[in-house]
Design brief:
The chain is an alpha/beta fold and 308 residues long. It has two domains: 148 residues, Rossmann fold, CATH 3.40.50; 149 residues, Rossmann fold. Helix content is 39%, strand content 15%. Strand 3, helix 5 and strand 4 form a beta-alpha-beta unit. The longest helix is centred in the last third of the chain and has 24 residues. It is globular. It starts with 11 loop residues before the first helix and ends with a helix. It catalyses: carbamoyl phosphate + L-aspartate = N-carbamoyl-L-aspartate + phosphate + H(+). GO terms for molecular function: amino acid binding; aspartate carbamoyltransferase activity.
Length: 308
């Protein structure tokens, strides 16, 4: 894995290798400190042109635990405000000796373009591309599911909410397709129905009761107002919650051992209630913790391959 741009480009064996490696990083602090030579002498740049808390912080902590130096780029305080292109910014940072670039950007295809232009020593990791891709989130979601549930082929997994605008849903579906998931159901109102060409292994329904029936995993998504058209941005939030909000009553249709996931940030009282978000079936906080281990594994494997 030289670059991580889209999860669909990663094979089943590669995904399993990353997940197995991540498991080895879910250990005590003392053991983690033994790993801090893996990226010693290397540098990682976080270049975020859209807001982030979890992903940016997670990559920062992951790289630091592996011994790397971290450069956190602020586009509002950089030469991009003066008209510098993202590619020129990266070329500048390459000249400073930075090897790893974690990039979030709204423009479709920009990570591929960058990966084709950078030096052979550089690694490009997409930390989110518009509504198209968020591969490291997809990996941590796969890891969280596997830790809780094991064999993907036996599972019914539901993604619920604003799927049309969700890069998280796209990447998770790509990963689940590669891992041969038993059943993937997309539940959303018609106005949030995605282009099903991007979800080849999934079924769609606007009926939340039928969709949740017997579910082993439910991933609920926030409403992404920032990606909506003007005509859709003023829809009725109360109506959405009444029809598609994840409540304890609606969970009764799922398997008793169902786990609840959310990529964050959550809008409580819109797509999920407090009781569900903070309940015993929720693994939302585990997702955040797992994200550090998964990103450590990804960086470690990339560097292992570079050393070879």
């Amino acid at each position: 894995v030289k670059h991580l741009l889209y999860l669909k480009e990663i094979s089943k064996d590669q995904i399993n290798k990353i997940l197995e490696k991540a498991d080895s990083f879910l250990v005590t602090k003392n053991v983690i400190e033994d790993k801090n030579k893996i990226m010693r002498g290397l540098s990682l740049a976080n270049l975020f042109y859209e807001p982030s808390t979890r992903t940016r912080g997670s990559f920062h902590i992951a790289a630091k635990r592996l011994g790397a130096e971290i450069f956190n780029f602020d586009d509002k305080m950089s030469s991009s405000e003066k008209g510098e292109t993202i590619l020129d910014t990266i070329f500048t940072l390459e000249s400073m000796g930075i090897n790893y670039f974690v990039i979030r950007h709204v423009e479709t295809g920009i990570h591929t373009m960058i990966s084709e232009k950078v030096s052979n020593n550089s690694h490009i990791i997409s930390a989110g591309e518009g509504d198209v891709s968020h591969p490291s989130q997809g990996l941590l979601d796969l890891f969280t599911i596997k830790k809780s549930k094991g064999d993907f082929t036996r599972l019914k997994i539901v993604i619920l909410g604003d799927i049309q605008h969700s890069r998280v849903a796209r990447s998770l579906a790509e990963g689940l397709n590669t891992m041969s998931v038993g059943q993937l159901i997309l539940v959303a109102p018609e106005y949030f129905k995605p282009n099903m060409e991007h979800f080849p292994c999934a079924e769609y329904t606007d009926n939340i009761v039928n969709g949740l029936e017997g579910a082993d995993v439910v991933m609920t998504l926030r409403i992404q107002n920032e990606r909506m058209t003007q005509s859709r941005s003023n829809f009725d939030i109360k109506d959405y919650f009444n029809n598609y909000g994840l409540t304890t009553e609606r969970l009764e249709a799922c398997n008793d051992s169902v786990i609840i996931m959310h990529p964050g940030p959550m809008n409580r009282g819109v797509e999920i209630t407090d009781n569900v978000a903070d309940g015993e079936r929720s693994v939302i906080r585990e997702q955040v913790s797992n994200g550090i281990a998964v990103r450590m594994a990804l960086l470690s494997i990339m560097q292992d391959q570079t050393n070879k």
